[in-house]
Design a protein that fits this description.
Number of strands: 15
Structural class: alpha+beta
Distance between the termini: 34 Å
CATH class: Alpha Beta
Strand order of the largest sheet: 3-2-4-1-12-9-13
Shape: globular
Radius of gyration: 17 Å
CATH topology: Glutamine Phosphoribosylpyrophosphate, subunit 1, domain 1
Order of helices and strands: EHEEHEEEHHEEEEEEEEEH
């Protein structure tokens, strides 16, 4: 299946380090060769780069790696096609506008049992189950949030109810952001690490690169990195199936568990014993 990466930061942060390790999995250290994409928020705008070539040999990926784009919210994806052919229209992340906010979504899993209900302004352009799921989410947010679209807690509650309905349709690991908060749901596999002052060094797993964050970070910096599997040798937290999280300003703001149906987990051929529960669930985390 595909792999996911997200960054949520207290301050605009250079994404080159994490992105370099992540794109190595797009054909060099792993077999995700059916395209890639990255969305980088800058204030109210969002840069979106997508390519249907393998990330490890894409000139566009090299461009992103060679230019130190800084962002407070990032979503990236490398694809191994399962639903929908390899093609530009099927590359994640997908982006839609809702009430003057650009929303970005990336998915890892199989939601082939889900169909668009035909109600609402959002419809898929490509042929993936992932984009269908995104449009279902966007239509629900369009209907249910109204003037509360800026309230993170309201969004978290709406998304929690929506996930409880959608998770029965299949494996539903996803990332979703509006540029203000970062949502992440673990259906089968997801991990995160939070870097905060005082920083330490980290070495990428997929390439020979080590960064001493204590030499470049400040007390104002804090970064949450979320990925399908850990990118570095740091102490990552592995999520349990069903963990739904909201990150803001580089910290875990809210967390709950929305159970994944047993038949969905069975199809994933996944061992829940390999994951652990994040500490201090359902409470706010501060620096």
């Amino acid at each position: 299946m595909c792999q996911l990466l997200a960054l949520n930061c207290a301050e605009p942060t250079d994404v080159t380090f994490s992105f370099t390790g992540f794109t190595a999995r797009g054909g060099r250290t792993d077999h995700h060769v059916d395209g890639w994409g990255v969305a980088l928020y800058e204030k109210n705008a969002c840069r979106l780069f997508i390519d249907d070539r393998p990330a490890c040999e894409s000139p566009m990926a090299e461009f992103v790696k060679r230019n130190p784009f800084k962002s407070r919210n990032v979503i990236a994806h490398i694809r191994r096609a399962t639903q929908g052919a390899a093609g530009l229209e099927n590359c994640h992340p997908f982006m839609r506008e809702l009430r003057r906010k650009q929303w970005v979504f990336a998915h890892n899993g199989d939601m082939s049992a889900l169909t668009a209900d035909g109600c609402g302004p959002y419809a898929p352009v490509g042929t993936t189950d992932s984009e269908t799921a995104f449009c279902v989410i966007m239509n629900a947010l369009y209907d249910e949030t109204d003037g509360h679209i800026q309230d993170p807690d309201r969004l978290f509650d709406v998304m929690s109810r929506l996930i409880a309905r959608l998770t029965r349709f299949g494996i539903f690991n996803f990332l979703l952001s509006n540029g203000d908060v970062q949502f992440a749901y673990c259906s089968t596999r997801l991990s995160y690490v939070i870097r905060r002052w005082p920083f330490s060094s980290a070495q990428l797993i997929d390439t020979d690169w080590t960064v001493d964050f204590s030499a470049v970070g400040t007390t104002a910096d804090r970064t949450a990195v979320i990925a399908t599997t850990p990118l570095t040798d740091e102490a990552w937290t592995q999520c349990r199936p069903g963990d739904f999280m909201m990150f803001r300003d580089g910290d875990l703001l809210r967390h709950t568990n929305i159970p994944v149906p047993a038949d969905v987990l069975a199809t994933a051929r996944y061992a829940p014993s390999e994951v652990s529960r994040p500490a201090d669930a359902n409470v706010a985390h501060t620096a």
